[in-house]
Amino acid sequence: MLNPFRLRRLAIVVLLVSCTAGAYSQEYASIYLKSGDRITGRWLGANDQSARIIFHAQELSIPLNDVNSIRFGDDLRLIPDAVAEKQFRNGQALLELGLRAEAKQKFRAAIEAFPRFADAHYKLGILLQEDGEIDEAVKYFGFVAKINPEAYNLATQLKGAGDAYLKTEAFRKASQAYLLIFNHYPSHSDGEYAGYTAGFLLAENLESHEEALQVLQEAKNRYPVSLYMEKTDYLIGVLHAKLSRYEPAIAILTEFISNYEESEWLDDAYLARGEAYLLLRHNRAAIADFDHAIEIAQDGKLRREARKRRDACVWTVYRISDGLPSNQIQALEVDGNTLWIGTPKGVARADVSINADGWQLITERVNKINNMFDETINVRAIAADDADVWIGTLNHGVIRYDLYKIYPEIYDASTEFPHNQVNDINILKDEVWIATFSGVARFNRTSGGWVFFNKKNDGLPADDVTALAATPKAVWIGTSGHGIAKYNRGINYWEEFGPDDGLNLGRESTITSFDVWRDRPFATWYNDEENGYVEIDPQGSNSSVQPVDSVGDLVSLRDIYIAVGEISGENSGEINRQPPLWIAKNDVVYLKSAGNWEWFEYPAIQLGDPIVNCIAIGDGVVWVGTSNGLAKLDRNNPAMDRQIQNEEE
């Protein structure tokens, strides 16, 4: 009977003889001695007496009686040190005795001593997998795949783990397992499935768009003839769109639509390409694609989404990328074909005529206004006509730019102006009326004289004047928490305008905006309980107060603004007919015309969830200033012909 020593020596001899024939394919060897030392060098071969290696340029012949074990490898970085090897061998011995928990501890100790120990990672992973600890097992299999994938082919184990994760909708874990196969075992039979499935999960379930695009493009390059190619071509186009690469998205989706005329994703492709067209402002092309999607879609949800997107084609959104100083639009003024835009970072001016294709920034004069102070001007109000433009700011008073002069003029608290915070401005012929935080200012452009009004001297209901409207017979002001007041030009007198005049706004109402149609003022208001709009009867007998929202409507009550349009058609001369009313809120823009209501939802794909700051009417368009950009509602857009709201399938 052989003793243990002779058994160990025989095992080493058998190992070395079997390795010698192909030993030179393994460039290096680490010989672990019984003394605990390790000698690593280039392998030269062995016989039944000794092993030979080159160590520090010297050939060594090491007796097998001194050898505990030998490990071969092509990469010295993957050969563990003596401490790690000892821990690993102890783990193997414990495992042979059935002591699994203790074996795990030793394998972990081996990894701690030598983190790149692929064998220890593998053994530990197998034990964890057998014990049902799949997450931990995949972690260690992943280390093996990354450290030395040629040592063990773990594709089958990783696919099993990925499939198990997929069944429980653990999409992130599933994608990680599949990616280990795709990246480290590409020639395995499951490599194609793993790569495409990981890409699909990243794109559709995890919304990791950039990573998904990289994986799918690599899968397409690696496996060009695949059952997954149709879906991959569609998703690559969609992913480009989601990454705001709209022109490549359109090109890829156009090719997809041409190549896969019967595809189950054809309606989705039209919808995705339409969105890309919309965001590039090719609205007519977008409308055509949304119409195609509506026509061929079998899914009611997709049809509704396509209709919603088609409705969004009536909108165009301008932002910093279009040359605006900020996406926060706080003031608007339409003067013919010129649109003045106020932001917290200065003023902008645009030509919005048809010849300018609806948008062309004009920098003349604007730069001088914006550069008047060391810091940027925070613009809160604008009024303009053929003579000059008036810019109301948050902290620099009002700036007047006479279009026939070179330099702007500044009126602020240092020049006896009521306050540096300006909230609203109105021009009426030679008069300029200005609402400030400390009352009202009137400027006469003929005489150049100023008149100031406030609560103490003139009986205003409050000095914090938020909005105003000037007519030939009266001037109307709105306040913060104190309703409306009227300036009677005939008797040069200010008076509150409230319940005694047939106007019941509710307690402590704040006025947010005014507009005038043929001397008839319209205003929007809010208080702690509700908001709405009011048509004021100048004679003080029959004002109409219309609530819009209440506390329970989950919308901001304070963000409501009004603009009054002109009556068109053969009845435009009727004096008593109500003009079109445009009311902008954070969730929708309303139009009340001839007693009927329409509403237009903001394009979420472009604006997100905006906060509305102002509204103005131009020639055939409505401009809405929001916290996320300047939105233009085009009344002449062909999408308006089929505006569909709350359609039931």
Account of the protein in words:
This protein has 649 residues and is of the alpha+beta class. The protein has 17 helices and 33 strands. A five-stranded antiparallel β-sheet has the order 4-3-2-1-5. A hairpin with a 4-residue loop joins β1 and β2. α8 runs antiparallel to α9. The protein starts with a helix and ends in a 15-residue tail after the last strand. Residues 1-25 and 643-649 have low confidence and may be disordered.
Q: What amount of the residues lies in strands?
A: 25-35%
Q: Termini separation (Å)?
A: 87 Å
- Measured as a percent range, the helix fraction is 25-40%
Number of strands: 33
Mean pLDDT rating: 88
Shape: elongated
Radius of gyration: 39 Å
What's the story with the biggest beta sheet?
5 strands, antiparallel
Strand order of the largest sheet: 4-3-2-1-5
Instruction: Give the count of helical stretches.
Output: 17
User: Which residues form runs of ≥5 with pLDDT under 50?
Assistant: 1-25, 643-649
**Helix-strand makeup class:** alpha+beta
Brief overview:
33% of the residues lie in helices and 29% in strands. The protein has 17 helices and 33 strands.
Output the keywords.
649 residues; alpha+beta; five-stranded antiparallel beta sheet; 29% strand; four-stranded antiparallel beta sheet; disordered C terminus; disordered N terminus
